[in-house]
Amino acid sequence: MENEIAATTARIINKLYGNGEPDKAVLASLRAADTIDSKRAQAVWPVMFSEMSEEDISNDPTGRPTYVETAIYTALRCYAIHQQAVEESVYAPSASKDKNSEGVTFFNALAGLRTNGDTKAALDRRMQALLASRNLANTVKSITQLTRILKANNRTLKVDYAQLAQDLFFFETSFKMANRICLKWGQQYYRQPSKEVNNNEDKD
User: Fold this and answer.
1) Cα gap 198→175, rounded to integer Å
2) Which of 70, 76, 102, 132 has the largest count of CB atoms under 10 Å?
3) Using an 8 Å Cβ cutoff, are 44 and 30 in contact?
4) SS3 of 159, please?
């Protein structure tokens, strides 16, 4: 499962972006639907499920989504929020996967905003709440709110939303893994941000 979810999410994101002709209807549905089982989320199901492995799609008689479905959907929704009204794709793999890529992880992107005194205090409060929680619903809500802050302050920065999906999957699997993922997020957020993240800050 290592990197498989990230690879699947990347394929879906690239399909949604459509080489510069994004599927605006599906992206709008993603932004409007908090969860994958929402009626408004139905527009994304054909795109999403067609790219996923059969074993990752729920067979639960009640329709309860799998960890993979929830993780990928959450990352896609964050991507859709960030992509709104931005012409160039805001997704790119992070340098840890592709040394030539200009993408950064989600929490490295947020770290770049901590250099701004106007946003640092609010960001730190939200991050502390996120890192203290092991409840998936609360974590997803916090990440969505942080995505909106990121978009408002640096809308053209390229973020590795595929890796975010991979992290969210591991977060769901066990309390021990949730602790490790939160540690990873904290390491990325609190370390000194790279010059690339700072220099890409949107001045508009």
Assistant:
1) 33
2) 76
3) yes
4) strand
Phi/psi for 191 (5° steps) reads -70, 160
Q: Tokens for 81, please give them.
A: 């929020």
What single-letter amino acid sits at 24?
K
Instruction: Give the integer Cα–Cα distance in Å for 154 and 23.
Output: 22
Residues 198 and 115 sit within 8 Å (Cβ to Cβ): yes
The CA–CA distances, whole Å, from 161 to 59, 64, 74 equal 26, 23, 9
Encode pLDDT of 65-96 as tens digits.
999 999 999 999 999 999 999 999 999 999 77
Sign of CA dihedral 108, 21, 24, 57: negative
Q: What's the N-to-C CA distance of the chain in angstroms?
A: 40
Q: What 3-state DSSP class applies to 33?
A: coil
The type of residue at 185 is W
Q: What is the DSSP string of 75-120?
A: HHHHHHHHHTT-SS--B--BTTT-TT--BB-HHHHHHHHTTSHHHH
